[in-house]
Amino acid sequence: MSAPTDPTPRTGALARLRNSDLWRSFLSHRGAVVGAVLLAVLIVSALLAPVIAPQDVHDPRALDLWFSELPPVWVEGGEWPYILGTDVQGRDILSAVLYGSRSSILIGFFAVLLSLAIGLTIGLVAGWMGGIVDNLLMRFGDVLLSIPAILVAILVSSLAMQVIPSGWRDVTAGAVLVAAITLSNWVQYARIVRAQTAVERRKEYVQAARLLKVPARRILAHHILPNTLTPILVAATLSFGMAILLEATLSFLGVGMPPSRPSLGTLIRLGNQYLFSGMWWIVLFPVLQLSLLVIAVNLVGDWLRDALNPKLR
């Protein structure tokens, strides 16, 4: 006699996503769709910069001073294949923007990822332990929050540049920026997770698990942490755009990425020097790329915040 079969068909994760309210909410939100498509195009093109960029901006041998200061191709004096023109070193602006976007996106991504890891850990420990541990961790976070994030990042970057040998500064510039942005960003995640953990630990299912001698790390990882992911996901999405802006600000001020490995902020700083000499394209296109990138992230983040808010359902 054969075993009874389950009449309900099993669906995969992708099928469940397409049938979910979240997916329908996304498709009905025009701003989210535009933002997601734009963000996908910008990220993919930036990550594929070594493949699709006409010029390797990290290779000095690819630069040609004979083709320096060329305007975009649709302006008189422009030449193919320099679609967006060149700078004073003969560097192709389109290639520089793609490589610069790659640096900015990777720095912002790893900064948010590291901030999440630190904030989740500290928030879970503070909310679970309570008492003096909670007070010490949160007061340290309050001290960091009392200082503007840009000042914290500038301090960390400046100190790192003094400690790191000059030969290694260009190589470690990205890691220093990630550390600087992380130090000023982890507190917001820790506060969110700490508040959620303090609420969840008093609920009956957590009390029952503790009576059954379930290890605290298992309760935190399998029961409490999943209940904190919704607000954390929204905060991380919006923070991604802010991390990219913070990196661009630091690079614009000269304490970020070096000219040899430019980010969008570095390109804007270098192009700003030639703005009043008539070479507007050197600074305009990095500014447009940075603006589109942050706008796309914010459009997706705003939709996600509204879609995951139970009060708006």
Q: How would you describe the shape?
A: globular
Largest beta-sheet details: none
- In CATH, the homologous superfamily goes by the name MetI-like
The CATH top-level class label: Mainly Alpha
Q: What fold name goes in the CATH topology slot?
A: MetI-like fold
Report the average pLDDT across residues: 84
- Low-confidence stretches are none
List how many beta strands DSSP finds.
0
- Computed over alpha carbons, the radius of gyration is 24 Å
Q: What is the count of helical runs?
A: 13
Oligomeric composition of the shown chains = single chain
Domain ABC transmembrane type-1: 101-301
Protein name: ABC transporter permease
GO cellular component, one term: plasma membrane
Transmembrane segments: 32-53, 105-131, 143-165, 171-193, 232-258, 278-304
Description:
The chain is mostly helical and 313 residues long. The protein has a single domain, classed as MetI-like fold. Helices cover 68% and strands 0% of the residues. Helix 3 (30-47) crosses helix 13 (281-307), helix 5 crosses helix 11 and helix 5 crosses helix 12 (264-272). The protein starts with 12 loop residues before the first helix and ends in a 6-residue tail after the last helix.
Features:
single chain; 313 residues; mainly alpha; MetI-like fold; 68% helix; globular; MetI-like_sf
Helix-strand blueprint:
Blueprint: H1 13-18, H2 21-28, H3 30-47, H4 49-52, H5 93-129, H6 131-145, H7 149-163, H8 169-200, H9 204-211, H10 216-224, H11 229-252, H12 264-272, H13 281-307
Helix pairs in contact: 3-5, 3-13, 5-6, 5-8, 5-11, 5-12, 5-13, 6-8, 7-8, 8-11, 11-12, 11-13, 12-13
